[in-house]
Structures are given as C-alpha cells and as structure tokens.
Design the sequence.
C-alpha cells in the first residue's frame, strides 16, 4: 500500500507535469493568436464559461481520484517521459505550432493520404484537430501523445487510467494468461502500456487503421510480452464471434460519424464472449458536468472535430444496449467519461 512519502512524490510529480504541459499550452496559444480563427463560425455558448477556479478544481479532482485508486491498489501508474525525451518532443511540438495554426486558420481539414487511400474510410482521411497528416505519418504518431497531454494540461494519462478500474474488477481471481484483451483504435499504444504495466502476462491485441501509429505502439510496448497488433477497421474487427474477454476503446467514438457508431458498437458486441467486458473511455457529453458544457460546445469549432457535436448528444447507453451490452459501472475524470458494459 502506498504511504505518505509515496503520496508526496505523486503530488510533486503530477504538479510538475501539469506545470510543464500547461506551460506548453499557454506558449502555443501565444504563438498562435486568437482561439477562434478568422472565418470560424460565431460562437456564443449556451452555458457559462468555466472560470479558472473551476478548471483548477476539476484538474485537482482528477489527480485525487487517480491517487485514491493507486493507494487502494486498483492499479499502478506507469512511468512518464524521460527528461531527454520531454525536451526533444517539446522542441518538435513548438516547431509544429506554426503549421498547426496555418491549418487551423485556413480550416484545412483533409489529410494527405499515405499510400493507397482506397483502403481507408473517407471519414478517416481528415486532420482531426488539425493534426499534421491526420493519422497517416510517423511524425504525427510521434507527437500525438505530447499534443494530447498539452491540450488537457497534463491530465490525459490520469484520465485514461480510470478505465483500468473495471478491468481490475473483471480480472480479480482469474488467470490473466488465459484471457484476451483487445484495444480498439489503440493509436500509439498509450493505454495498452498502462494495461500491460498492471497485467504483464495478459495477452493483448492493439487494433488501429494507421500503420504509422501501430509502429509507434509497437515501440511503446516493446518491453512487454504477449502483445500483438492488427491493422484493421473497427467496423470489421478481425476476430471470430464470441472470442474476446475484454475490449477497450479510448477516444474513438467522438471521431466516428453518427451512422458508423452503431456499426462499431455491433462489432464490439459480436466479438465479446457472453459475460465479456467492454470499457469505453471517451469525451464527456452534454450534461455530464454542466460547468464544462461550454467547453464541449467550443471544442469542435476551435479544433477540427466534425462529428463531435452529434457525439455529445448521443445516448450511449441506448446505443450499446441495443446490441446486448449492459452498463455495469461509470465514472468521470475531468473531460473523460468511463462506462463499463457487460455482454448479456
């Protein structure tokens, strides 16, 4: 069990993390000018804009919840960036800011296809949040996690870790070596690394459409055994019916078109075993935290998130319920919601 010194070390480490990434956010904003680029739609939020005290309270609550889980032994936190890597990625991050601002101000939404564009869904070939090259280059994959942590002021890893709690419950008393977890749209493998840090003998498979991001995921998980990867679309998962014990999905559904979300939900239900667990971690939705609703309205206007507004109003419980997945637990960590479902 974690003691007082551990708690102090955690608090100092997370405080430094927030300062580091918040500093990058402020620096990038100063380099880029107004948050709403010229030509973007006029925006008047229907909810009050959260003030600084509200934001700090929300950020503090993320780490308080994270520490409570660590102290209770629900999971362990994986290590962060080395100083050398942090400085290297910092330089790359700031070097990318001018290009990001050009894409944002000019509303450049189409990604440059890599290789055969016909193998990707049309909705995938976009610069989501004006990411350089969309999801289709090694440079994009290398910078992605650093950019996400900057956007969320250093809270992204702590928010993702909350999705480990239902997995902890599901694995209690079971031989992890005989189970199989898949992470759908695994990206750079950031969440899978947290999974393997806690259950190193659990066989896992990361699924993603981007070869560049899968290459980054392989590097992220290079020190772990029992890992596999598949280049595949979440609309057609490469697994037999009822063959998967646990499926996870982090920050995918808000980037899917409305017609595609039920298709992916159906696929997840198809591959899960009866009684299998599905853990969704994604953006909070309208009404989940009313003090943050204005941020949800602004997000798709400030960044390129073409399907976010419909996601924010989608009844996820009803959608997954229609394919036989029943909610068994839920949680919120700042701007992330976690819902665990069981297949009936």
Sequence:
């Amino acid at each position: 069990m974690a003691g007082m010194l551990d708690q102090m070390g955690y608090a100092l480490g997370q405080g430094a993390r927030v300062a580091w990434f918040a500093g990058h956010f402020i620096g990038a904003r100063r380099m880029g000018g107004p948050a709403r680029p010229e030509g973007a739609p006029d925006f008047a939020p229907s909810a009050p804009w959260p003030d600084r005290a509200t934001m700090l309270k929300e950020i503090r609550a993320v780490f308080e919840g994270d520490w409570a889980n660590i102290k209770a032994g629900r999971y362990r936190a994986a290590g962060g960036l080395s100083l050398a890597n942090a400085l290297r990625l910092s330089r790359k991050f700031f070097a990318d800011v001018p290009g990001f601002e050009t894409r944002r101000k000019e509303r450049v939404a189409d990604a440059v296809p890599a290789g055969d564009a016909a193998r990707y869904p049309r909705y995938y070939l976009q610069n989501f949040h004006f990411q350089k090259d969309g999801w289709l280059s090694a440079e994009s994959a290398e910078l992605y996690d650093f950019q996400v942590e900057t956007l969320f002021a250093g809270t992204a890893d702590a928010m993702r870790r909350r999705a480990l709690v239902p997995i902890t419950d599901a694995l209690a008393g079971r031989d992890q070596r005989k189970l199989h977890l898949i992470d759908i749209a695994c990206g750079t493998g950031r969440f899978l690394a947290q999974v393997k840090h806690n259950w190193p003998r659990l066989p896992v498979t990361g699924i993603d459409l981007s070869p560049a991001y899968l290459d980054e995921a392989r590097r992220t998980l290079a020190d772990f055994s029992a890992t596999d990867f598949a280049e595949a679309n979440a609309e057609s998962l490469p697994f037999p019916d009822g063959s998967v014990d646990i499926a996870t999905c982090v920050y995918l559904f808000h980037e899917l078109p409305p017609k595609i979300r039920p298709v992916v939900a159906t696929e997840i239900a198809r591959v899960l075993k009866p009684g299998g667990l599905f853990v969704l971690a994604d953006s909070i939705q309208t009404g989940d935290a009313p003090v943050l609703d204005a941020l949800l309205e602004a997000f798709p206007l400030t960044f390129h998130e073409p399907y976010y507004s419909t996601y924010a109003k989608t009844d996820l419980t009803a959608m997954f319920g229609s394919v036989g997945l029943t909610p068994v637990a839920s949680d919120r960590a700042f701007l992330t919601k976690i819902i665990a479902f069981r297949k009936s």
